[in-house]
């Protein structure tokens, strides 16, 4: 009589069996070296393989408490399928990939609150000025016109525009310091 050394598949899990975060971490950590080797072979770059491994972990950890992940009979195969789908997605949508750069990232967007606050402050400060001072500040400092051009638009001499602008800026600085 010959003995078969084939392994039996693990018993199916019950429908309400959920994987705890600790169980998920242990399972993923056990499969991680093997998965990293596979991803390294596919990407050819250890940094891309590590990024993909991390993204796979994040994707699966969000599902760790769901029944679909807990019911998987072959967690490594499921993990590989998720990783390959992420890799395929990065190939199909190259705009989603991170790109290296030597520039610092832009400041985060706050929903426009900083811009709104700056506009409100500027309007309040301009409201404290006389019409001539406000017009000179707006034309020269905000619109970028020269004193000559601003003078032509306002029907005033260049020196008058410059003087009104300097008075207006001085009033605005004084108001900001208080």
UniProtKB/TrEMBL annotation:
The keyword rRNA-binding does not apply. GO terms for molecular function: DNA binding; sigma factor activity. Residues 31-92 form the RNA polymerase sigma-70 region domain. Keywords: DNA-binding, Sigma factor, Transcription, Transcription regulation. Residues 1-28 are annotated as: Disordered. One of its GO terms (biological process) is DNA-templated transcription initiation. Gene3D superfamilies: 1.10.1740.10, Winged helix-like DNA-binding domain superfamily/Winged helix DNA-binding domain (1.10.10.10). It holds the Pfam family Sigma70_r2. Residues 123-172 form the RNA polymerase sigma factor 70 region 4 type domain. The keyword Thylakoid does not apply. InterPro entries: RNA_pol_sigma-70-like, RNA_pol_sigma70_r2, RNA_pol_sigma70_r4_t2, RNA_pol_sigma_r2, RNA_pol_sigma_r3/r4-like, WH-like_DNA-bd_sf. Belongs to the sigma-70 factor family. ECF subfamily. This is RNA polymerase sigma factor. It comes from Streptomyces pseudovenezuelae.
């Amino acid at each position: 009589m010959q003995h078969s050394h084939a392994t039996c598949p693990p018993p199916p899990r019950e429908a309400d069996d959920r994987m705890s975060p600790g169980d998920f971490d242990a399972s993923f950590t056990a499969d991680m070296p093997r998965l990293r080797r596979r991803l390294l072979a596919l990407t050819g770059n250890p940094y891309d393989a590590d990024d993909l491994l991390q993204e796979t972990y994040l994707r699966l950890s969000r599902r760790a408490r769901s029944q679909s992940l807990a019911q998987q009979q072959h967690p490594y195969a499921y993990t590989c399928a998720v990783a390959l789908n992420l890799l395929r997605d990065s190939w199909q949508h190259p705009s989603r990939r991170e790109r290296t750069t030597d520039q610092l990232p832009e400041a985060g967007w706050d929903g426009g609150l900083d811009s709104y606050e700056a506009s409100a402050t500027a309007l309040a400060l301009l409201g404290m000025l006389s019409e001539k001072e406000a017009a000179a500040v707006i034309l020269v400092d905000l619109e970028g016109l020269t004193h000559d051009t601003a003078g032509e638009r306002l029907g005033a001499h260049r020196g008058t525009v410059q003087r009104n602008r300097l008075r207006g800026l001085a009033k605005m600085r004084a108001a900001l310091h208080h």
